[in-house]
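As agreed, record minuted below.
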Amino acid sequence: MKIVVTSIFVSDQDRALQFYSEKLGFVKKEDVPVGEYRWITLVSPDEQNGTELLLEPNNHPAAKEYQTKIFADGIPAAMFGVEDIHTEYKRLLENGVKFTMEPTQMGDLTIAVFDDTCGNLIQIVQK
């Protein structure tokens, strides 16, 4: 068994698609109409057959509440691995990404956290 798709709730699918593709550099894999929303997935440019990230609309009240509460508590909704966190931090800053935590050493890990503009905090990590 393996993880093929994981989702993240977003307040606006179009804005999320733009942010995750243009600012972060993920590649759109699927964009299929499903009722009033779309099944939009992205993949890493380095692993285009790898795990897909689904931009899930937060239109359900429980999804909105969950998203709002973990954001308010400073809990990242997802974690993405990077090879060199300082280089990635600089690249994302140059792309206009707003960080809530600069790269910080935590034991064997270095982490940083940014706002995805769609209701989530996202953590990047270098092991």
